[in-house]
Amino acid sequence: MDAVDTTELEQQFKRSVSEEVELVGEGLGRFVVHVPFTFDDGDHYVVLLKRDLDQWVLSDEGHTFMHLSYDIPEFDKGSRRSIVDRLLLATGIEDRQGELRLPIPGKQYGDALFSYLQAITQISDIQYLSREQVRSTFVEDFQDLVRGAAEKRGREADFHYAHPVHDPEKRYPVDAHINGTAARQVIAFGIANDEQCRDATIILNRWESWGERFHPVAIFRDQTEINRIVLARFSDVAEKHFSSLETARERLEAYLGDLIGG
Questions:
Q1: CATH 3.90.920 at 131-260, yes or no
Q2: What crossing angle do the helices spanning 194-209 and 228-237 adopt, rounded to 10°?
């Protein structure tokens, strides 16, 4: 393994990225690369240059994904994960169980650091998906949340569920159904707009007319976006609703535990 000239290496980094880049040794074959870039909360990017067998690699040692998970617990699933995977493929960055690694070709240290930092920035920006993209991920996030909460209580969640006896034509499907005894079954709705809120109101009324025993739960993408009259009508038939995914993540599992045990 060829040794590196740290002075020349640091100059490459400065020319390609910024004069503020600093290279600090941290043991044999391992350097911390201090860069003038931060996440929105002020935390600096974590970048290391280290030897890996016969090559040098840049690594964040898992920091980027860990940091992103604080704001978006489900960021590594569904549409968001697909976006990240496409980005990693385009930049040649490897994901090794959450550690982002970029092998450095030849002696192109400066170019590699520039590409690496650009990728971290794009990954951190995933929380600012367009409104349309957020709509598409809401369904996936809702399903992941309900599925996970149900499994932790020893139950299964079925999605797009229609009552097998009362609704064979599937005219009144619920977004999610958590199995249990008749008195403990839970039906859940993921609601992102007024139309979905109206539909959920109609479906709940229909289920009540069948004489079904159930507990209805709603999770809103953002309850403040729902028309107050539409929301009021829904609240008359809904037993429990969470104003956002974030709120549901904190409380749904405990609420299901009170209803169905486990």
A1: no
A2: 20
